């Protein structure tokens, strides 16, 4: 099969042996594969990412000197089953799969390890237990975006954003755009998006952002609807008002009201902020500027050491969370959200290339104003997105 292989940051298209599915695995023909921000990082910073992965317990992440087939956002069609499979679907069935396989009892990340070649290729091996048929005649292009959209779905769920809430999305690259799309799907009342790139701000609007801000011209916090809590003084004032009201009710054990509010999570809340930039200093900027009781969900992957002022977060009771990946249920739910028309990933797709155009696609993605998500069509001939 043909595949785009990266070695020492350089891409070459090579003829590789046809992959052989192992026990419990399926060989699929790749129809589309997305280029992920993780792929961009892995191409140039694989060693740093491998060291980080090893420190967290995964020691098979790719190294710069190794020859690796990237690609973990893909759709395809079943070609062949390996041994010990349940053979749930006929050959030719369109499918997607979580990008993880098991070999010799060990898990490997598809497209980010030499032990699990990815989908920048005509064919890829997937785990049968992690495979799902594509429903409702969903297109291969949209199905391939199940993986990045699942990352956004997991982040939104981590943020516990409810209907009628205000949410901020800082950074409107592919993952920020996906988060905006998912926020509107869950019924967030007002989504405020911020990015320096005019093109990304345009895409944010198409994805459903209610207010879009150029941070060079204004603050996203100033663009938000009026809120009850803007500073610590407002919280103290709310405390006085609440106590005066409760104490005005004879024989009321007012402390039970506070206990119940805490149990039901019914106390005052700030907005939810999604950090989708991954650049040092952004978390500190958010903590400094955000109102008290804000929940911050960090989705952007910063590969450098960062700093923020804990006392600022303490005084405001900022809830700082980090989101990574998704679980199989979230992956399945994302696939069906797209297939049922509840989520539209179309605005994210800004170009398609064949295997021979992968290097050009990476170069194009270096310009944040040019593209969001570029797909690879292994049978296509396009050299530029």
TrEMBL record:
Residues 4-376 form the Enoyl reductase (ER) domain. SUPFAM superfamilies: GroES-like, NAD(P)-binding Rossmann-fold domains. It comes from the Bacteria. Keywords: Oxidoreductase. InterPro entries: ADH-like_C, ADH-like_N, ER, GroES-like_sf, NAD(P)-bd_dom_sf. PANTHER family: ZINC-TYPE ALCOHOL DEHYDROGENASE-LIKE PROTEIN C1198.01, ZINC-TYPE ALCOHOL DEHYDROGENASE-LIKE PROTEIN C1198.01-RELATED. This is Zinc-binding dehydrogenase. The lineage of its organism: Bacteria, Bacillati, Actinomycetota, Actinomycetes, Mycobacteriales.
